[in-house]
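Tip: read the tokens left to right.
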């Protein structure tokens, strides 16, 4: 649900992983989550980003994790309609927010940090 004065629903949790093939096998084969994207991959060892269906919130596996405390911790991503307005509202409320960046064509992301240093993002899609 879109909320112009704050964040919306949790849309994804990003898990940074070292071994994509093993992680996809675990979450897909053992836990039974369906691979949403990429739908045509058979060997995930060279894939950088995999999305798994887990209800309204996607579990996204992001390659390149090195088990660095803090840097590779899961990140909560909130869906927003107007990323500029929500970022400004959060800044006005004293939330530490980075600049808005394009993560991919039509996808805008802004990273933030909670009081204990946990990372989160707000994201909008065109």
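Filled-in amino acids:
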């Amino acid at each position: 649900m879109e909320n112009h004065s704050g964040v919306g629903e949790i849309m994804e949790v990003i898990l940074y992983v070292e071994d994509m093939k093993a992680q996809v096998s675990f979450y897909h084969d053992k836990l039974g989550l369906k691979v949403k994207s990429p739908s045509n991959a058979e060997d995930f060892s060279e894939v950088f980003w995999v999305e798994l269906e887990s209800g309204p919130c996607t579990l996204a596996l992001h390659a390149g994790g090195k088990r660095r405390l803090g840097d590779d911790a899961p990140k909560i991503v909130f869906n927003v309609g107007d990323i500029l307005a929500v970022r400004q509202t959060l800044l006005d409320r004293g939330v530490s927010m980075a600049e808005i960046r394009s993560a991919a064509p039509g996808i805008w992301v802004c990273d933030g940090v909670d009081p204990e240093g946990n990372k989160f993002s707000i994201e909008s899609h065109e």
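Residues 20-30 form the longest helix (11 residues). The chain has two helices and nine strands.
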